[in-house]
Design brief:
It contains 16 helices and 13 strands. By secondary structure, the protein is α/β, with parallel strands linked by helices. Helix 8 packs across helix 9 and helix 10 runs antiparallel to helix 11. The longest helix is centred in the middle third of the chain and has 17 residues. The N and C termini lie far apart (46 Å).
C-alpha cells in the first residue's frame, strides 16, 4: 500500500482549503490605490512617472503561482478510483474544493512530483497523460501577488508594458524549471524591446531569489550585460531554513493552535520535491549549518543539516532519499556562484525565528504517522520569522570578492523587525520598498547598506 493511501488518517479534509507552505501573503499590509505616500515618495513618483523607467520583471515566491492540470487517459498509479481523464484543465493550486477523503487522495497524487534521475533532461515530470500548466504568464491577476500592480501604478508602471510577472511551477526544484527559464528569458527580452532596449530590473521575493539565481546561472554573461540592470532579492533563503525541515516532519502552521492545518501542510510538503531545496544547507561556515548544529532532536536521535536524507528515511519517506541527495548536490545552491549582475539583497532580522526543533518522541519510520508539533527553539541570531539571518547573509560571505573582480555591485541592507517578504509592500513600516525603487530608478543606494558579512549590523 502506497503511503498516499494513509493520508486520510492524518488530514481532516474540508471544502476549499487554500493553504500555503510558507504563507505570508495574507499578512502583508495592503495600501489602497488612493493611499498617499510620504513626501519623499511623491517626489520620486513625479520625477519618474513620465521619465525613462527601467522595466520591472517579477519572480514570485513559493506557492504564489496558480497551477492547473489536465488528464488524458492517465490512470492514477496509486488509486484506481481516481479519474483517468478530466474535462479540460482543472485547478491544481490553490487547493480546489475537496469534499471527501477520496478527493483529497486524488488531488495529492496529482500534486506529487515524481523523481526519476535516469530521465533525460528534467528529472521531475508528471505521469504519462498528465499536463501541469502555469496560469497568467506575464500577469499578476491569476497569482497570489494580484495586488502588486497597485504598488507600482503611482510610478507610471503598467502591466504588459513595463511591469511583468513570470509565475512558475513552484512544486519543482531548480533543475526542474527548464520551461520557466525559457519563459523568463523571453519575457525579459520582450520587456526590454518594448522599452527602447532599456535594461530590466529583475525583482524576486522569498523562494523567488533562488529561482531567479538559477535562471541567471543559465544565461551567458553577454546576455546578462545586455538585459539586466539589477537583480533584487527580497527575503532570500540562500541556505534554506529550519521551517523547511519543520514542514516535512510535523508540518508548519502560522497559527500553532490549529494542528490540523500543520498536518495538511506536511502532507503537501512531502509530495513536492521543492521542499528539499528549502531544507537547511549543510556547510562549515556561519552562513550555513555545520555538523554540530542540531536542527532536529528526538529523545534518542539528533539530526544536523548533513542528516536530512536520514531524517526523511526515519519519517518513513525512504523512497525520497535519492531525491534529497540529488537536490542537495544541485549546483545552483551547492556551488552558489554569483549571479553575474548588480545585486541588491534585503532581509529582516530581530524577529524570533526557528533555529531547531525538539520532538517529545522518536520518529516511527511510518509515512502515515504525523508526529505532534515540536518545541521550536529560536535561532539566537534571529531572522524574519521564517528565515534565519545566516541564510539571507550567505551571499555577503561568498560573493563580494568575485563580484568586485567582475566589476559588479553587491548591495545589502538589513531591516530590523521586518517580517518575511514585507519589502514588497509600500505600506511596510521600514521604507524597504522605497529603497528598492530609488535604487532601480536612479541608482541611489540606501543609507545603511553594506556589501560584506563583517559589516552586517548583527552577529551570527
Amino acid at each position: 500500500m502506497h503511503h498516499l493511501l494513509t493520508l486520510g488518517i492524518c488530514i481532516l479534509t474540508t471544502a476549499s482549503r487554500t493553504l500555503a507552505l510558507l504563507d505570508w501573503h495574507s499578512t502583508l499590509p495592503f495600501p489602497t490605490p488612493n493611499q498617499e505616500y510620504d513626501e519623499a515618495t511623491l517626489l520620486l513618483q513625479k520625477e519618474f512617472r513620465d521619465g525613462e523607467r527601467p522595466p520591472i520583471v517579477w519572480v514570485p515566491g513559493l506557492t504564489s503561482s496558480n497551477l492547473t492540470y489536465e488528464l488524458v487517459n492517465s490512470p492514477n498509479p496509486y488509486f484506481p478510483f481516481c479519474p483517468k481523464s478530466t474535462d479540460g484543465p482543472q485547478p491544481l493550486w490553490p487547493t480546489p474544493t475537496l469534499n471527501t477523503t477520496a478527493d483529497a487522495l486524488c488531488w495529492f497524487s496529482d500534486l506529487n512530483t515524481p523523481f526519476d534521475q535516469t530521465a533525460p533532461g528534467n528529472p521531475y515530470h508528471p505521469r504519462q497523460g498528465a499536463t501541469v500548466s502555469v496560469l497568467d504568464m506575464g500577469n499578476f491577476s491569476g497569482t497570489a501577488l494580484w495586488f502588486m500592480p497597485y504598488y507600482y501604478a503611482p510610478y507610471g508602471y503598467v502591466v504588459g508594458q513595463d511591469l511583468f510577472n513570470v509565475p512558475f511551477d513552484w512544486r519543482l526544484p531548480l533543475d526542474g524549471l527548464t520551461d520557466f527559464y525559457a519563459s523568463l528569458k523571453a519575457t525579459i527580452e520582450h520587456a526590454s524591446q518594448l522599452n527602447n532596449n532599456r535594461k530590466v530590473a529583475l525583482l524576486s521575493v522569498s523562494w523567488g531569489p533562488q529561482v531567479a539565481l538559477g535562471f541567471l546561472h543559465r544565461m551567458t554573461q553577454e546576455w546578462k550585460d545586455q538585459y539586466i540592470a539589477w537583480y533584487v532579492a527580497e527575503s532570500p533563503l540562500y541556505s534554506g531554513s529550519p521551517v523547511g525541515a519543520l514542514a516535512v516532519t510535523s508540518g508548519y502552521a502560522s497559527d500553532p493552535t490549529q494542528p490540523t492545518s500543520a498536518t495538511f501542510i506536511r502532507a503537501i510538503a512531502t509530495q513536492v520535491d521543492v521542499m528539499m531545496n528549502l531544507l537547511p544547507r549543510a556547510g562549515t561556515s556561519n552562513v550555513t549549518w555545520p555538523s554540530d548544529f542540531v536542527l532536529v532532536k528526538t529523545p534518542n536521535k539528533s539530526y544536523s543539516a548533513y542528516d536530512m536524507p536520514q531524517l526523511y528515511a526515519d519519517l518513513g519517506f525512504s523512497y525520497n532519499t535519492r531525491a534529497v541527495y540529488h537536490v542537495q548536490q544541485e549546483a545552483d545552491l551547492a556551488e552558489f556562484a554569483p549571479p553575474g549582475v548588480n545585486t541588491f539583497i534585503t532581509y529582516g532580522y530581530n524577529i524570533s525565528t526557528a533555529g531547531s526543533l525538539v520532538y517529545a518522541e522518536d520518529f516511527q519510520a511510518n509515512a502515515s504517522y504525523c508526529p505532534p508539533l515540536p518545541t521550536v527553539v529560536p535561532d539566537p541570531a534571529t531572522g524574519d520569522s521564517l528565515v534565519p539571518v545566516r541564510s539571507s547573509l550567505r551571499a555577503a560571505a561568498e560573493w563580494p570578492t568575485k563580484m568586485a573582480q567582475a566589476g559588479q555591485e553587491l548591495v545589502y541592507k538589513a531591516y530590523a523587525n521586518q517580517p518575511h517578504a514585507y519589502c514588497i509592500s509600500p505600506a511596510g513600516p521600514d521604507g524597504c520598498f522605497f529603497d528598492v525603487m530609488r535604487l532601480i530608478l536612479n541608482n541611489t543606494k540606501p543609507s545603511g547598506h553594506f556589501s560584506e558579512l563583517k559589516d552586517a549590523p548583527h552577529p551570527i
